[in-house]
Amino acid sequence: MVPMLANGSSPTKLTGELLWIGRGTVEEIRLAKVEGKIVVTEGNISAVHGEACLRQGALGVIAVSQGRPDSGPL
């Protein structure tokens, strides 16, 4: 998996607890109490950023993806 920054990302230096929030649904984010934490999700980074960071006070989002299984040679 190749790491990359999402469009619109800004450089920063911060520390915070990493918190797995699964697919990053509104309910998962709310129950996780994300304020002051960096959330890790397999969900849509834009949607998770909007809910977790802009509405609930998370510090940032790391999104992981399984990728497309048939996207190239093994």
Describe what this molecule looks like in 3D:
- The mean pLDDT is 88.
- This protein is an alpha/beta fold and 74 residues long.
- Strand 1, helix 1 (26-32) and strand 2 (38-41) form a beta-alpha-beta unit.
- The protein is built from 2 helices and 3 strands; from the N terminus they run E-H-E-H-E.
- The two termini are 12 Å apart.
- Helices cover 24% and strands 15% of the residues.
- The radius of gyration is 13 Å and the shape is globular.
- It has a 3-stranded parallel beta sheet, covered by helices on one side.
- The protein has helices at residues 26-32, 45-55; strands at 18-20, 38-41, 60-63.
Strand and helix map with partners:
Blueprint: E1 18-20, H1 26-32, E2 38-41, H2 45-55, E3 60-63
Parallel strand pairs: 1-2, 2-3
